[in-house]
Amino acid sequence: MKKFIPMKGVCAMGCNIEIDDNNKLVSLEFLGGCDGNHKGLDALCRGMDVDEIAEKLEGITCGRRSTSCPDQLSKALRLMKGSANA
Q1: How far apart are CA 42 and CA 66, in angstroms?
Q2: What is the enclosing helix (H) or strand (E) of 45?
């Protein structure tokens, strides 16, 4: 499943996420924000289980913000998984 998920409260506008049938992250591409950090997230998370990624990234903040791109990614992954099960 591949889907664009908008993000809130961060510099990135959203991300394209692809998950395979085994619940593994295939690809991740952020639109806007810190390019190097986003490429790093993609490289580190590619091939990992979506639930494990979401658990590790949930609650990370950025500066004074109550969220971050990693936190928004955790929410996006859970949203995608929920829509796949619906």
Answers
A1: 22
A2: helix 35-45
Query: What does the block give as tokens for 6?
Result: 């908008």
Q: Sign of torsion, CA 79 15 63 45?
A: positive
Q: β-strand 2-6 against 14-19: which pairing, if any?
A: antiparallel
Q: Facing residues of 70 across strands?
A: none
Global model pTM greater than 0.85: yes
Question: Mean pLDDT throughout 65-79?
Answer: 96
Residues 6+ apart with CB under 8 A from 77: 17, 19, 25, 50, 53, 54
Q: Quote the pLDDT of residue 38.
A: 94
Residue with tokens 């950025």: 62
